[in-house]
Amino acid sequence: MEASAFTLAAVEYLSGADSPIQFPEMPAAAPAAVRIAVVDSDSGFVRVLGKRLGAVGWRAQLLPTPPAVEELQSMRLHAIVIDTALLGSEAWAYLEHLGGHAAAPAVVVCTGPSSVAQRVRGLRLGADDWVTKPCHPEEVLARVEAAIRRRRAAELASQPAEPIVAGELEIRPDMFEAFVGGRAVGLTRREFELLHLLAAAPGRVVPRERVYERVWGYAMAHGDRSVDVFVRKLRKKLELATPGWVYLHTHFGVGYRFDPQEVEEEETADGGEEA
Amino acid sequence: MSRFSLTNRNGREFFNLFDEAGANILRAAELLDELLKAWPDESGLEREILICEQEGDRITHDLIQLLNRKVPTSLDRQDVYALASALDDVVDYTEEAADFLNVYNIEAPMEQAQDLSQVLRESCANLAAALSRLERFGDFHHELVEVNRLENEGDRILREALASLFANGIDPMVVIRWKDIFERMEQAIDACETAANILESIVVKHA
Q1: Which residue has the higher pLDDT, A45 or B57?
Q2: Is the C or the N end of chain A the one with fewer CB within 10 Å?
Q3: Chain B neighbors of A71, CB-CB under 8 A
């Protein structure tokens, strides 16, 4: 493995105490607890990069073999550094799948020499950046930071500046709160995220597993009743704040649907049931 | 001399305390079952489970004190001590499981925990029924068989519960919290089986 040996030698030389190269410190505004996965079997490179990531306070998962894309997605990562050489012919499908998720992390491909066509294809399929080995961990880190910055800017830009108005509710993402006639409903952060997620897809059934993954940031364990409990809490608060309206509907065995409906007084509200 | 002494006053004191212990473990298991069904809305039930745990300690203490003072004429001393300890374990583990719900700041129950609490409740109900008839040795074979069956059921649920926790992508904090709770509940069910086995050996000795 010439490339690996060279990479190791190069990064050890460059990151050594006698290194003449001085890097500027990370700006104070840099994210404090970035979660990153490094999918690479080049132990020397991973060791040096892992050390550097630890030094800047990032939470790094070092994975010598590529896990399933769903597993990476459920880790609630900000970024992934991946050597596509580990994936062989599956590399393109993997990259595409990785970037196809709504809350996909920034993907930086860090691999050996490649052709222009390969790099273009990778970037078009969803990679945010492409670094060719041998490379310095400081450069990888800086590229990851830049990719995360771009993602965050894009996320902010894509967030609805306008509140969601439905029934008597006004859902304000900028305040993490919902209001009825100007009065706050009094939602916790998690309750707000749950309401916002469902309200952003009005009329559509969102499966419980999907709700859990988006609001809690992890895969839902079989049997976990967290989503049901939080929907119940949310319903109680909405019922108090806006009686006469039903917002959340249960689809048994599947999930929940946001669909504001005004109900007659004698009509029984669709409340209390769990999916 | 026969070890049976149905009218013996010493024996009656032991039997009464075991009867109390049976009612106490059943009460604790019922409360845990209710707590898990209503969690997080009914957190006040933990206090009542703690009272059961203290009551269990009191009964165990009374049994050991009685054992030190008097010779049980119809039961082996070792059996009395082992049975008292097993029953104390049932309520101790039950209380620990309930306590962990608060300590670990559990947001919502898991179905498998509700299933385990149901098994524990049934197991304690059978054990309590057997203990209430301890004076008439041998009249509770069905209950003891049922406790053993429920223990196997508990093992099965625990295995499934652990498998669900160790699936890909689960929050490690969820794994840590629930693994502890599941294991405490399973230990309570195991302690029921231990108590049932001791009762079985008592029956054999008096056959």
Answers
A1: B57
A2: N
A3: 168-169
Domains belonging to chain B, first-starting first, are 9-205 (1.20.58.220)
d(CA B153, CA B148): 9
How far, in Å, are A68, A125, A148 from residue B168 at the CA level? 9, 25, 25
Report the residue of A61, A75, A77, A222 to disrupt the B interface, i.e. the one with the largest count of B CBs within 10 Å: A222
The H or E element that residue A7 is part of is helix A2-14
Q: Is CATH 2.60.130.10 what the domain over A164-262 is classified as, yes or no?
A: no
Longest CA span, chain A: 81
With 0.90 as the threshold, say if the pTM is over it: no
Cβ contact, residue pair B169, A224, below 8 Å: no
Quote the ipTM score: 0.84
Enumerate the residues of chain A whose CB falls inside 8 A of the CB of residue B161: 223
Structure token pair of residue A237? 């608060």
- In the structure encoding, which two tokens stand for residue A28, read together? 């104070």
d(CA A98, CA A125): 9
- Could you tell me the CATH superfamily of domain A2-16+30-158? Response regulator (3.40.50.2300)
Which residues of chain A have a Cβ shorter than 8 Å from any chain B Cβ?
67-68, 70-71, 73-75, 216-226, 228-230
Arithmetic mean of pLDDT over chain A: 81
Query: Which residues in chain A have their CB less than 8 angstroms from residue B174's CB?
Result: 218, 221, 224
